Amino acid sequence: xxxxxxxxxxxxxxxxxxxxxxxxxxxxxxxxxxxxxxxxxxxxxxxxxxxxxxxxxxxxxxxxxxxxxxxxxxxxxxxxxxxxxxxxxxxxxxxxxxxxxxxxxxxxxxxxxxxxxxxxxxxxxxxxxxxxxxxxxxxxxxxxxxxxxxxxxxxxxxxxxxxxxxxxxxxxxxxxxxxxxxxxxxxxxxxxxxxxxxxxxxxxxxxxxxxxxxxxxxxxxxxxxxxxxxxxxxxxxxxxxxxxxxxxxxxxxxxxxxxxxxxxxxxxxxxxxxxxxxxxxxxxxxxxxxxxxxxxxxxxxxxxxxxxxxxxxxxxxxxxxxxxxxxxxxxxxxxxxxxxxxxxxxxxxxxxxxxxxxxxxxxxxxxxxxxxxxxxxxxxxxxxxxxxxxxxxxxxxxxxxxxxxxxxxxxxxxxxxxxxxxxxxxxxxxxxxxxxxxxxxxxx
Length: 444
What we know:
Blueprint: H1 26-35, H2 39-51, H3 56-78, H4 81-84, H5 88-91, H6 93-96, H7 102-130, H8 136-153, H9 155-180, H10 184-188, H11 199-214, H12 233-261, H13 263-269, H14 271-279, H15 283-311, H16 318-336, H17 340-368, H18 374-378, H19 385-398, H20 426-441
């Protein structure tokens, strides 16, 4: 029988047995919808109009494309869960080998800690706007403790929590949008002092909006593996991808909208100070919305982080890996919060670099070559040299197309990135090369 949502989850990274399978594909929609009604999406939206220099008209199609592409990859990743019954990162043992899979497993552990850190910082900053004088360290510590409890309770409790948050956050962000409706003509007439619609900035916004939603892909099966094995895979793909893409785009649009109306205040008061000023008497409610959004995202970040640690064959209970991830995330948040904007931008792009070749291999192995099955995951040899070789080669081939964010506005440009006008297309290159090579070297 499945665990009740109020019981601590008993299953770790082992395959979910038939008697514990439950739910319908629709539950993946509410989970990914709530997980992307977040503070980070809002910040991406504000960056779009205030700091990247786009008008709303210029930003809208780029945000639509970025989120649509990210939603496709999220949905395809979630579609693997029901038939395999394993967490996402464990499933890629079929592509890289049990020990070879330590590399993407460790990278995902770092990524999930990074996102946990990002949301911890944003939540505490929002709290400090709502309650001036709140101590960053104490507030961050309380936040991490609460998130750790949610993650320890595990899968079913997280689904219940996200279902509630999908309604609560949906209504709260709708309120922020309603406050902006009377000023929509002003917002759409906004023209930033530094135009953002250069090819390089278009590429940057596409990478940032795409990489945020796409970066959930290594989590996806963690939250679909309990579905019955014979559930419609097409529906899982559709519900998970649509849930993430719709909410991510909507909140980025709200952030861009508020940013276009509050650019001077945002520059002087920060991301949340601008929103607080805009919301007026509802400022406290706007800050509460952002804080709850961070909780919705970090419930997944810390839970998946604990599973990624176990994929490395760490022989401890899941509650210990939850606690370890929380402690590391807290420590990093305290260290980097004073230089957050630079950390956030660089972190987003770094995610894209490692995930995309991994995704190209994993998706082709599962969907096109049929190599990834429950038995191939369980019986994986120590190293799959073909998978590891394709991963390394795909990454190396993409390096000349990279445009690291670290030195903006004059970043070091990969030798071949000049061909695309300085736009970072390395994520398309690494994914495409990895998918093609995997298809060619694998036998069906």
